[in-house]
Amino acid sequence: MSLRQMEYLVEVVERESFTRAAEALHVTQSALSHQIKALEREVGGPLLERMTRGVRLTAMGRAYFPHAELAVRSARQARRAALAAGGARSGELHIATVHAQAIGVLPEVCARWAREHPGVRLVLHEYATTEELSDQMARGVADMALGPPPRDWPGPVTVVGQERMVLVVPHGDPLAARESVRLAELADRPWVRCSLEPVVGGRRWLDLECERAGFTPRTAVRTQHSSTAVRMAAAGVGVLLTAAHELVGLDCASVPTDPPWRRDITVFSRVELTGAAVEFTGYLRAAGHTGDAAT
Length: 295
Known about the structure:
By secondary structure, the protein is α/β, with parallel strands linked by helices. 40% of the residues lie in helices and 25% in strands. It is built from ten helices and twelve strands. The protein has helices at 3-15, 18-25, 29-43, 59-85, 99-104, 106-116, 130-138, 205-212, 226-234, 275-287, and strands at 48-50, 55-57, 91-98, 120-127, 144-147, 157-169, 190-194, 199-200, 203-204, 218-223, 239-243, 253-268. An eight-stranded mixed beta sheet has the order 4-3-5-12-6-11-7-10. A two-stranded antiparallel ribbon has the order 1-2. β1 (48-50) and β2 form a beta hairpin. α1 (3-15) crosses α3 (29-43), α1 crosses α4 (59-85) and α2 (18-25) crosses α3.
């Protein structure tokens, strides 16, 4: 079996269509089908089930696909790394991140990169949770990842900054005028909870700190995306703990916790970074993100 055949399989599965995969690969649909059938003969059984609308993996395909996907992505990443090490000033840099970092940390860094490295295109892969981000990075989706410190990550991890965590409330809330708030004062308040809450030692930081303050936070709504959570808190649904940089340009108030709390922003990868990835990491570090935002 060839790497190209695996690449064809990955394209068909990701695009859920032979037609769209053939267009993306710039080959005829008959040539694509021929290569997939050749791969299936070599593997020893059908990998795809052709349906009226689209395709899906068979049981054998589901077992085979993760390995093929990793091989294809690793090969692409290896090529980009080799070109970068050879001094190439063109190509792509794939960056995986969680949505909160994509909207809060990356815009100004990407803008600088676009000005100074117009030949190297950035490709962002955004995920809703840190768990999904780590899982996709383990599968080789990108050259580097940006997010909170990953748990039990086997590859390199570099701290590039910090984000300041704040409490979000509407402007009319009595807490909005405070310089800081202790969590114990919020025992009777409803909370907006988000999948991207900080995790310490395998537990949500908010749960840990509220437990130490003598209460269990009462959840009013739980969201997948931090941007949704911010808007819920700004509307008065409940108090939210989030990074200050997510509030830029939004009509809400932020209040620091007492004591103040920050968490690291990291870059992590499967292998040591090279070329453009090293330079981009330097841009992130130079940006000096502390997560500050106006209230």
